[in-house]
């Protein structure tokens, strides 16, 4: 039966389309639950489109006995990067969002290519692995982020106080400011200055403890981890 489904015929076309919808939909559900830019329908369309491309390539190869059977698929792998790039956003506070969504779109396209060429085993095992990484490992990713040695912060401070007061305060609490990027914004209130900081600690303390220390810094109006 699998040999029949690996060739291009009406049964394999229907089976591959349904499988692409299922795999793309399952991947999209996880992103949709987290209110990400690309959700349920987007993932389904990406997976379905990639499947159709590979089926078309296989059809051309088998029918006309010409062309490379993976030529069109190679274009999908590189071309999906444009769609993924559109899902990546950099906020005004240098927060980068959408990278996981972009990577998910790319892997959904790869799953569709596998389905489209009849590599069902690889597509199904790959889909399980992708779901495991995107959903099951979310808590582990958060744990690693929260316990990273170097943490990035956005701060807003009183413009009447020298910035060196903040640096002295940080050093007095055994916090090392490793990078400083002053933020220039023409819409910003002149009463305060803002900056992006990378901070590490000589002690093994959590992000909440660092935030608690920095919130009591002299002249600080606002602080947020980025």
Can you walk through the features of this model?
The protein has helices at residues 2-6, 10-33, 40-64, 71-87, 99-116, 120-136, 138-146, 163-172, 207-214, and strands spanning 89-90, 96-97, 150-158, 175-183, 192-201, 220-225. By secondary structure, it is an alpha+beta fold. The chain has 2 domains: 2-136, no CATH class; 147-225, 2-Layer Sandwich (Alpha-Beta Plaits). Strands 4-5-3-6 form a 4-stranded antiparallel beta sheet, covered by helices on one side. The protein has a two-stranded antiparallel sheet with strand order 1-2. Strand 4 and strand 5 (192-201) form a beta hairpin. Helix 2 runs antiparallel to helix 5 and helix 3 (40-64) runs parallel beside helix 5. It is elongated. It starts with a helix and ends with a strand. The mean pLDDT is 81.
